[in-house]
TrEMBL record:
Ranges of Low complexity composition bias in the record: 30-43
Superkingdom, taxonomy of origin: Bacteria
UniProt name for this protein: SCP domain-containing protein
SCP domain mapped to chain residues: 66-169
Stretches the record annotates as Disordered: 24-43
InterPro entries documented for this protein: CAP_dom (IPR014044), CAP_sf (IPR035940)
Length: 174
């Protein structure tokens, strides 16, 4: 299955954001993060977790899994937004070392990316990217974000926790 990735920003009128799973593990101190990169046309979301994987590479695999899920539901693949990825990196980095993952209002994201609709999925852990996408799909709020036809672009960024796991923010724009 070929996933088309491009750049697109659109303006729509609704804002949605949902809380993450409460059972996510937490690390003590942050280490490093990397800037988001434009994902390649294909990346394997089922590839095994590797502690030395670059956060940007893992974000690419999350994008690939997300787009497979959307296409499987008859929706168009999301296109890459560098603005959303930059906002996601700031949000993921701010959550490194936090006791739990909590969503911040999306107002700053919407202003920075010049849209009126934004949503976010968060994750923390050390698992294959497809496992994260599957977990989002079993959570009603995360699933709603991932499969919302009004959300047309996405940026994903991850920051490394002290234990080597990754905290990721998937920012959707409509």
């Amino acid at each position: 299955m070929l996933v088309f990735v491009g750049l697109l920003l659109a303006v729509v009128t609704v804002v949605s954001w949902f809380a993450t799973r409460p059972d996510d593990d937490v690390a003590e101190e942050p280490t490093t993060s990397t800037a988001p990169v434009v994902p390649p046309v294909s990346a394997d979301p089922r590839a095994p977790w590797a502690a030395d994987e670059e956060p940007g590479s893992y974000a690419q695999r999350l994008l690939a899994g997300t787009n497979v899920a959307r296409v499987d539901e008859g929706l168009p693949a999301l296109v890459w937004s560098e603005c959303a990825a930059e906002q996601g990196l700031a949000r993921a980095t701010a959550l490194v070392g936090a006791d739990e993952l909590t969503h911040a209002p999306m107002d700053d994201v919407m202003a920075a990316c010049a849209v009126s609709v934004a949503a976010e999925n968060l994750s923390r852990g050390a698992a294959p990217a497809q496992d994260v996408v599957d977990a989002w799909l079993t959570s009603p709020g995360h699933r709603a974000n991932l499969l919302d036809p009004d959300l047309v672009s996405v940026g994903i960024a991850c920051a490394r926790e002290a234990d080597g796991s990754l905290t990721c923010s998937q920012v959707f724009l409509g």
